Amino acid sequence: MSAQSVNLNVQREGTPMSTLTLMTRLREATRESHDQLETLPYFQALERGELPIESYVGQLRAMAVLHGVLEHELPKAGDERMNAVWRENLRRFPQIQTDLGFFASKAVLDIATAHEAACALADPILQRSVEQPVSLLGYLYVLEGSIGGAQVLAPRFRQVFGLDERHGLAYLSWEPTVAQERWRAFGERMNAAPVDAAESADIIAAAEEAFAGIQGLFAALYPFETAQLTRKATSLNPEAGAHPVPEDPGEIDAAIRAGERCWQEYPYFAWRYGERGWRYTQSDGAWLITLTTQDQAVMDAQVAWLSGVLGARGMPSRLLQRHLELLYEELIGRMPESGERRYGRLLAAADRLAEQRRAVIADADLDMISRQFDQAAGPDWRARLPCMGALLVCAVADQAHGIKQAVASFQSWLVDPQRFPPHWIAAVHEALREAEARRRA
Length: 441
Description:
globular; two-stranded antiparallel ribbon; 18 helices; mainly alpha; Heme Oxygenase, Chain A; disordered N terminus; 2 strands; 3 domains
């Protein structure tokens, strides 16, 4: 929703469109969409106090998708027009994560059609990021404008669900003076951004596109049929997409605990991938558990696919191997009655990854190179980032197995002189040379 109530720009009758500020043009172009949004059944049900909790949590999960993707794409585009507007304090994804954390233990199901609408919100953002990056300012305009609407809606959500800014309502809670100053400063930067007429038109088109997608989302959030309720990966990671996760809370707990243990063993995860990586660890682990209901061949094929995706992004297959092993341990520890027949497929898939690596580089060579790397890295860095020598060897094996960027995607981060000292970087290069030399033909 657009915060037109706090927008101080006013169009004068008869003013040529070309002389209007960008913010005024955006407001006028999206006025009708804004008004239509407010008439949807979702907001009428909220006003009556009849909105189901699934609708509200579904809104949070959907907006997490929208904010998560947009706030990831905006800063990395490197566009001077966007840099003139974007500020790190515009991020609202952390507020949504706080709210979703509050609801994490409450097992609120997803609305299937709303989940699909939420996932669809990300596609045009990603496309525009490649083809028309400056147009993403239109999406940012809509999301920033929604703060004005949040000030109106927050008291109703507080009353209907008993929430507050520390318990499920952080995203919508704003002090009026803070919101007004934020909007004023944002508007000034937007109006001063060096965009030409064609780019302004693209920004306006993107804002209208954003409103259309959000309208479709809220129409799906309420009303809905009970049969549409399901559990998707968005309950763990709003950016994960449409893949399934277990219905059993015990299996969800096992996925989370296995992820925690894997991150404890490999601090590299937190160093390189941060909070976003942790969310994907949870949703990937939960998805892997759903594969245990399939034949071993299906499990192996899906694990091979995931290994390729992760390997190309700087995560050697040894990390996935260990994750699978920990998933098995956590599941068997919680639900031994399910036994080897089902959860043993995770362990078998892990063994297959290990066998693929051994086909390229022997265990003895891996151990030797790992020890040499640890010695060269020194005790301080070895304690900060353990097991990195073995991961370097595994990256070489992964590349030999067909993951084309396995070494480059991993090495590039490890040899950054802004992050690591010269002796560490030298140790990385030496470990990779030694691993290549010991590859089996």
